[in-house]
Amino acid sequence: SYCVMASSVGILSRGGWLFLLFRYPTGMFNTFSPRLFRICKGCTRVQLRVMSSRNRVESKLLETVGIFEAPKIQGKYETGQLFLHKVFGYRGIVLFPWLARLYDRDVGSANPNSSDKPANSGSKEVKGKGHPYYQVLVDTRDCPHIRAQTEAVTFLASHDDSRALYAIPGLDYVSHDDILPYSSTDAAPIQHELFDRFFVYDTEKGSQLLARDTLRAWQEKNHPWLELSDVHRETTEGVRVTAIPFYMGMRETQNTPVYWWRYCIRLENLGKEMVQLRERHWRIFSLSGTLETVRGRGVVGREPVLSKEQPAFQYSSHVSLQAPSGHMWGTFRMEREDGYFFDCRIPPFSLESRPEDQPGYGVRK
Length: 365
Hints:
Blueprint: E1 2-6, E2 10-14, E3 17-23, E4 36-37, E5 46-50, E6 63-64, E7 67-68, E8 82-85, E9 91-104, E10 129-138, E11 152-156, E12 165-169, E13 171-175, E14 179-183, H1 195-198, E15 199-201, E16 209-211, H2 213-226, E17 230-236, E18 239-253, E19 256-269, E20 275-286, E21 291-297, E22 305-306, E23 312-321, E24 325-336, E25 341-352
Parallel strand pairs: 9-17
Antiparallel strand pairs: 1-5, 2-3, 3-4, 3-6, 7-14, 8-9, 8-14, 9-10, 10-13, 11-12, 15-16, 17-18, 18-19, 19-23, 20-21, 20-22, 20-24, 24-25
C-alpha cells in the first residue's frame, strides 16, 4: 500500500467525517475519487492508505488545491465557481447554469432499490421537476483519470464540412448535487485551452473569476447545441441509471432528412456489492413507425465494473432517426460477484427536435 502524508489539506467536516481535498505535487489530482476519512482527536497528521500493485510503502507530500466553500442548498452557483466533482473527483469550473426538468422514477417509490416492481413499471407517468445543472470545463490534468467519456461535447459539422461530427474536449454537464465548491488563489487553477479565453480575475476581489465577453458570445452562438432540457433517472437493485438526451440537428442525406441526437448515460452503484455491466439492450422507436432493437456486449467497447471504490461510469453515444421525434428505452444486463444476473432498467426518454427543423415549419396554413 501507499502511505500518503498530507501536511496541508483542505477539509470539510460532515457528521464526524473530514473530507480531504488534495492533489500530488506534479499537479495531478489523485486517481481515486475524493474520500471521506474519520480523523481522531489529537492526530497531528493525516494518512491515506490506498491499494497498489506493488507491496511497498511510499510517502508523497501533498499540495493544497484550495479552500472548501459551503455547498449551496438554495440558489445556483455562479459562472467562475471552482469545484470538485463529487463522484468523479475532477477539478472543474462552472461556465453557466441550465435549469433542467428532472424525471426521477424513484420519487414516490417506497424502496427504489427493490426488484419487486411490476414489469410494466416503466409505463408510469413521471412529472418533471426543475433541477439545476451546469456546463463546466474539466481540468485537462484530470481527464485521463476520469471514469467517464463525457469530457467532450460533440456537435454536427456544418453542411459543407466533410466530417459528420466534431468535438470540443474538456466539457461536461454536472448536477448541482455533484458540485463541491472551493476557492483558490492560483493564477491558473484550471488547466484548459479555453480557460484564459473565457475567464479573467477580478483585480479588485482577487480570487473571483469573471466571464470574458468571449464566453458570453460562445454561449450565445452554441446555445442550441449545448442546451440541456430533460434528465431521466431510475434505480434497479441498487444501480441508478441517469439518461440525458441532446438534440444535435438535422442533415439531409440523399434528399432525406436525418435527425441526430447525442445521449449521455451514467451508471452508479449505490450498494456495497460490486456489479459489472455485461450487455446492453436498447429499443428505439421512431415517429415514422419503425421500432429498432439493439443488443450487444458492454457499452462503448467496455464492460465497466462498478465497485465501492469506483462506483460510477459515464459515457456518451449518438442516435439518428428519419423522423423529427422518437423514444428510447432499454436495459443493462448486470452481473454480481456471486454470478447473479439482473436487468437494470434504462429510464425511457423522448427524442425531440426543434420546431424549425420539422417539416412544414414556417408554412402558412
